[in-house]
Amino acid sequence: MAVNLSSLTLSRGIPKWVPLIACISSISCVNRIPVVPEIDQTKTPPNDNEFDLRFQSLRNRLMPDDLIRVLDTTHDFNSAIKLFRWASRQKRFRHTSDTYFRVILKLGMAGEIEDMEAFCCEMVREKCPGGEEALIALISSFVKHRRLSEAIRVLVIVTSNGYKLPITECNRLLGALVVDRREFREILLVYKEVVKAGILPNVDTLNYLIEALFEINWVDWALDQYRRMPRKGCSPNSKTFEILITGLIARNLVEKSVFVLGEMIELECEADLSFYSCVIPLFCSVHKAEEGMRLFRRLRASKLVPDLLIYRVLIQCLSEGLWLGDAINLLEEMIGCGLTPEDDLFVYIIKGFCKLGKFNEAEIFLEDKCDFVTDPHNALLEGYCTFGDFHGAKVFFEKMFDRNVMNNFSWNILVRWLCENAWTSKAFELLSRMIISSFIPDSATYSALVIGYCKLSKCENGLELFHQVCSKNWVLDSASYSELVETLCQMERIQEAAEVFCYMSSKRCTLKSSSFNMLVNGICLTGKVDEAIRLLALAYNSGTSCSNASYKAVMLGLSKLGKHGDILVVLAKMLVGGCTLDVEAYCILVRSMCALSWTEDIAQLFNLMLSEGLVPDSETVANLLLCLSKHYQLHMILASVGRLASDGEILNSSMFNLLINGLLKEGYKSKACQLLDIMLEKGWVPDALTHGLLIGSSVSELPDEETLAYGNFSGQDKIGNILAEGLGET
What we know:
Blueprint: H1 48-59, H2 64-73, H3 77-88, H4 97-109, H5 113-126, H6 131-144, H7 148-160, H8 167-179, H9 184-196, H10 203-215, H11 219-227, H12 238-250, H13 254-266, H14 273-285, H15 289-301, H16 308-320, H17 324-336, H18 343-355, H19 359-369, H20 374-387, H21 390-403, H22 408-420, H23 424-436, H24 443-455, H25 459-471, H26 478-490, H27 494-506, H28 513-525, H29 529-542, H30 548-560, H31 564-576, H32 583-596, H33 599-611, H34 618-630, H35 638-647, H36 653-665, H37 669-681, H38 688-694, H39 705-710, H40 719-727
């Protein structure tokens, strides 16, 4: 008897990661054939005009080919179902696998999965000739059009009815699922259906499974599938190793990837060019030049021709690893193959020579390989400057001038080095020569000169150059920007430093975090905290990183101005910005909350602070204890106070007296006695006020904040006062 899909239930327990939907059920279609719906009136109603038109065309001529033609031209799928069902009721008509194929495909493409599945099951039940082929063709069509959920449903019907799906079609479905990064449970279902149907997986099937396992970071499972390939009658191919090496390197498991490469070579697995084009750059990106060259030698032994990318990444990697001999050999081989190297390949090699201090060899290489290319010459000139060899830089600069291989950057390299070493007068001499030689100073030139003036503390001259930069709508580079701001702050010209920051921020230029901290701190010291808050907003918009120091300077400034409520707004921005609270920030917050008498928040913050292993200073603790004692809330910090009393030196005798006094009044006599014991162990004697409370006499007013902090009130540790109180001295 037919059973409707909506009434189908599964009684057995199914793991949570298995979806409770028909598309991943492997129950036989025969046992769950649903009733094919006529027309679902809750969905879009059929287009009666279109149905009538199609119906008239079929009424006097109903053949399978005619029905197929009409179904293909019927856009409304409800009308298509209605036509299909009408044809089914005609005595002399019998549906074929082709007519079923057309209506199933139309439903699947429209996303009507349940109706689609119902017609699939009906076709199986009717045992239409060619039904198996039709179902396989449906899977192929759905995969082609990326209707993968529909393809999975049809696959389950195919396997549950004992049909054999070609492994190539299974692989196409698996591949589409992996490429589209569908959920792993869908991929696993397809793989299990393949195995259950007795279809032998091949290496491509397992490759897709391994790739899917890497996608969900099940690395050990992926490696396990690779190890078990021989048991399944498969041998790993180059794609297998490409997936493994790519997945391992992407997850920083570089040594494992090297081991897998060794296994590939041991197995003598032949690889194609796409493998080498993928894997060699990966090893080079993690500075594994030896493995890169190992693969390159195998590539050449395979009679394959390396492409430009392979040469490029290898030369760069070898140069950065200072394997300059191999890098030059590859460069020569590349040129011999008719490939034209880009200028930056020469630059990589020159920089390698400079790191080794081999400037003569670098010059010989330049004269031999790229005598008239500017960028490699600039790299060598920069190398001389970085090495601190000004004489060598000057001599080589003249050679460049004579060869006419200079550009603005060449002049700026030398000008910058002179300015950074406070030889500003020589820099201006070089600048004059630059202008005479018809080279126009650019923003990099001005940036260098700004640094030069800052090194000499001539901030007025630096500001003048900065204003020229602004007039040209240029920006300073990051180093000169930071240097100018820091110099202005050091010279206490905070307002000018703020103006520089505002202009550069408007150009989306970032300022070094330490420089920005210096600027914010300087502004807060002048009392212009509102201006500092505005700069925090500009920093966020321009990408400048705001550290704890910047936020703490603003919070402290607000605290000094008595704007304690505004501190919480800054705190929110601080936490949103990814900063964490340190001891100083906690102390500022606690003192501000004390000023606002937010006792519950104070207690929570104090407890959180100590739970994170942060210990406040004595002044903050004094403020906290006074505030809580005035509101009879000392009991809220009992655990934290116990930790401070036992482990630290933060609490003085005055604080102990206040705590004992306050806790007794709040009804915590046992805890007060514990604190008294600790106090006595430290060699302190309770004051007369605390003693009087302990023996039941009247309680006077609490000590004020100054007395508590510095221990100057008259009764502290005076044994005579205690005796007088206890003996009733007259």
